[in-house]
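Below is a filled-in request sheet from our internal design queue. Each sheet records the structural input a requester submitted and the sequence that came back. We keep these sheets so that new team members can see what a complete request looks like end to end.

REQUESTER: design group, bay 2
PRIORITY: normal
MODE: inverse folding
CHAIN LENGTH: 360
BACKBONE (tokenized):
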């Protein structure tokens, strides 16, 4: 398994993370607040679910018949779908939404409700991405399709020279792939890597398939065959919804890792990454838009990706507060703390990185 292949050094600046954890824990203890979500998380979950399901109900009820208004509702659903991923299922699958494990499981399963799969997502994101961030052949978040190059260690192809032109369109297709075919392909891939046990594989594939059938049934079959909505309008809206969601999700995560200021380290000949895990996270992750509170609210605090990577078990509503502790501790231990001022500048940095990787 890949998790047995690479190890981090524990000898490099070991006091940094222990000191940081003490200070972050002290923040919660001194202020007598929980590391998990509170009523604000519950309210946010309700808002995001409504942003997704209310337009869908309005579409099926036939309240709006003008095609442009119907498409506008599908666009709102796309932002609601992304909001569910960023602000509900993400914390749930990290065990950070609530101290109650059942609540975390239920909120995590909202990934399945919008076409994804919670179990596969946790394997790719929690196990591989959060452990081996930006490491070639270990972090599968940077192992995109062959026509995109996200690491200087990936094989260079001629098509990569133009990736900065078409990458953003490709991002919009991401969640459509999840809903359609890529989750089944990934399940087979994880089985071959030993991340899914062979004796459970058939059961997992059946469960995965049933969730996909449920998703397509309520989102396409019911509007077309029960409410007799125009096929072309439903399919067009469905595709646009996924494009909006895919582009939104892709940008939020790509801007944190595929930017020029971040490192792409490689293990030595013994499979050792010559850094401790916490400092590795700071060197491979960047924040953006730290002053945009409304934006941060919508994207589940993931503009504070450094804090998320270091403390994924802490609910995102606390990231802004603990970011000051992380930044001060990083400065004290002379550890890099990457942050970009706003969303547009971060997109510009990502665009530059795509161009560099395509021509290097």
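RETURNED SEQUENCE:
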């Amino acid at each position: 398994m890949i998790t047995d292949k690479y190890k981090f050094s524990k000898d490099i600046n070991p006091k940094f993370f222990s000191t940081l954890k003490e200070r972050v824990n002290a923040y919660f203890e001194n202020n007598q607040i929980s590391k998990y979500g509170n009523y604000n998380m519950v309210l946010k979950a309700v808002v995001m679910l409504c942003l997704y399901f209310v337009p869908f109900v309005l579409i099926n009820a036939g309240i709006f018949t003008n095609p442009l208004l119907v498409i506008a509702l599908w666009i709102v659903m796309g932002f609601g779908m992304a909001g569910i991923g960023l602000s509900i299922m993400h914390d749930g699958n990290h065990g950070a939404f609530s101290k109650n494990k059942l609540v975390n499981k239920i909120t995590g399963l909202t990934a399945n409700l919008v076409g994804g799969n919670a179990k596969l997502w946790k394997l790719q994101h929690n196990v591989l991405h959060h452990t081996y961030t930006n490491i070639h052949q270990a972090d599968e978040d940077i192992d995109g399709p062959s026509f995109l190059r996200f690491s200087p260690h990936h094989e260079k192809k001629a098509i990569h020279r133009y990736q900065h032109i078409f990458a953003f369109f490709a991002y919009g297709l991401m969640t459509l792939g999840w809903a359609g075919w890529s989750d089944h392909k990934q399940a087979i891939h994880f089985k071959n890597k030993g991340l899914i046990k062979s004796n459970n594989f058939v059961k997992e594939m059946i469960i995965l398939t049933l969730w996909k059938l449920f998703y397509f049934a309520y989102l396409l079959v019911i509007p077309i065959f029960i409410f007799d909505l125009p096929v072309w309008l439903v399919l067009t809206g469905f595709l646009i919804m996924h494009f909006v969601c895919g582009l939104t999700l892709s940008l939020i995560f790509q801007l944190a890792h595929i930017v020029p200021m971040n490192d792409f380290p490689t293990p030595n000949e013994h499979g050792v990454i010559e850094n401790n895990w916490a400092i590795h996270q700071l060197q491979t992750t960047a924040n953006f838009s730290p002053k945009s509170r409304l934006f941060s609210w919508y994207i589940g605090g993931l503009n504070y990706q450094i804090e998320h990577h270091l403390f994924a078990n802490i609910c995102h509503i606390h990231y802004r507060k603990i970011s000051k502790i992380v930044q001060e501790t990083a400065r004290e231990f002379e550890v890099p703390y990457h942050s970009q001022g706003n969303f547009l500048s971060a997109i510009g940095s990502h665009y530059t990185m795509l161009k560099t990787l395509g021509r290097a």
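SHEET NOTES:
- DSSP finds 16 helices and four strands in the chain.
- The CA atoms of residues 148 and 167 lie 7 Å apart.
FILED BY: M.R.
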